[in-house]
Amino acid sequence: MGRELHGDEARKTAGRPDEKPPGAGKLDRLTGVLAKEAAVAQASSAMNKNRSGALFLCDINSLKRINVQQGHRAGDACLKQVAQILTYMTSQQDILCRCGGDEFFIYMPACRDVCQAEDICSRIEKRFLASAGKGKGSISFLVTTVYALWQPGDTWQRLSERAVAEMEKRKAETQTSERRKEDGKDPYGKDVRRIRQELIEQISKPGAYCQDYDSFKGIYRFLERSIIRSGQKACVILITVVDGQGGSLKPYEKDALMERLGADIGATLRIGDVYTRYSSSQYLLLVIDTTEGQADRIVNRIKERFLTEELGNRILVHHCYELQPARIGVLEERELENGDPEIE
């Protein structure tokens, strides 16, 4: 492919050398490049003379959609833009033509091998991809480009038919790929949206996440596995309500006190923490990004909310330990008996 040309030199491109070839002077009125009849006459003559070259077809994607949605003036602007860019991207010996409503062809007599032809196609498509939708008032569109190389015994008609067949093949492959994407998008996209609606939590107020014990256990085990990768700190805290002598509460005292304690825990912990009612007089907390030392301060804040004069001699007792990464295999009973993980 030749260098990009500008100004007067560019206007001499697309099959307009100094000596007038067959059909010279017949231009497409809209774009200013050669009309099809004149271009075919020039390209056919050059091909028969040089016995070489490549024919490139450039198709504007979705021109019909642009005409319908934005009007024919917008479609005409696309055609003029394609003609201008292709003119700048062709050399003086190349022949550029508007050969159909949304198609252009370029005959390049100097292009003789597959690698060169594929590189030219790629450069043309990338040029339009880079400029798509850029600039004030610009219209976003892409161009599909294919080629056919001259072969011994070729006539212009044979060369053109191979190029057209290659374009039809490329369009069919593109449509099949897009259809597969759409077919795959609908059911799975709907599933994902439905799943999101099913799983998402509508948080009405800040505070920790209160769960039943089985759910708490599942969250604990998931976090225990995940910290293998993340290295995240987490701490489990067991809070027990006892009387002044460290004994159990009376049955008639427990319900009201535990309900109040649960509310205080939920308000004190952060939104990412989890807690659950563990027994009739205990709560179990799972606190994220927290060490054992920090856990003591968290419990102190809970105590400040919970322990007031009206509660008399009731007190809170707590024990805690940091989560460790999950291990493959089952902890031996003696490990637990010896305090592994260590509990304060």
Q: Could you please describe the fold and organization of this structure?
A:
About 25% of the residues are buried. The chain has two domains: about 5-180, Alpha-Beta Plaits; about 210-325, 2-Layer Sandwich (Alpha-Beta Plaits). The protein starts with 6 loop residues before the first helix and ends in a 7-residue tail after the last helix. The strands form two sheets. Strands 1-3-4-2-5 form a five-stranded mixed sheet, with helices on both faces. About 45% of the residues lie in helices and about 15% in strands. The longest helix is centred in the middle third of the chain and has 44 residues, at about 155-200. A hairpin with a 2-residue loop joins β8 and β9 (about 280-290). The protein contains ten helices and ten strands. It is α+β, with helices and mostly antiparallel strands.
List keywords for this structure.
single chain; 344 residues; Alpha-Beta Plaits; 2 domains; five-stranded mixed beta sheet; 10 strands; rod-shaped; disordered N terminus
Please write out the topology.
Blueprint: H1 7-11, E1 34-35, H2 36-50, E2 54-60, H3 63-70, H4 72-88, E3 95-98, E4 103-108, H5 114-131, E5 143-149, H6 156-199, E6 209-210, H7 213-230, E7 234-242, H8 251-268, E8 274-279, E9 282-288, H9 292-306, E10 315-322, H10 333-337
What is the string of helix and strand elements?
Answer: HEHEHHEEHEHEHEHEEHEH
**Portion of residues in helices?**
40-55%
What does the overall shape look like? Answer: rod-shaped
Largest sheet: 5 strands, mixed
What would you say about this model in short?
The protein has ten helices and ten strands. The chain is of the alpha+beta class and 344 residues long.
